[in-house]
Amino acid sequence: MHLAYPAVLSALLFCTGLYGVLARRNAILVLMSVELMLNAVNLNLVAFDVWLSKTAQDTLHSGQALTLFTIAIAAAEIGIGLAIVLAVHRNRGTSDIDKLRDTAEGPDTDGPDNGGGSDEATATPVEKAEATA
Fold it and tell me: Deepest of 6, 7, 22, 23, by most Cβ within 10 A of its Cβ?
């Protein structure tokens, strides 16, 4: 087997994952695209390990060992990333990346859930001082 076949397949997988990261707005699809990019790197590691093991007598199979570590780290990354996305979705109601630019700011208080009246929780300190005086 030639080295070009898995290298071209890996490049196609990596480019597809890169397009998914740059073009998608859903956080779960971005995580899936990152996983696709990591799998492309794993394919390259194993292909080059097999290719280099044909020339060397003493093979350590370090590419395959590194692939196993990469798979373990990718599984942990997906688990933690999915937990974060689910927590943000519960708090904000969306997993759209464009709407989640500033995570320090709370939900929008100008929406229909506010009730339309002046709320003491949204009043500025000056308005609170004038109301109590």
Answer: 6
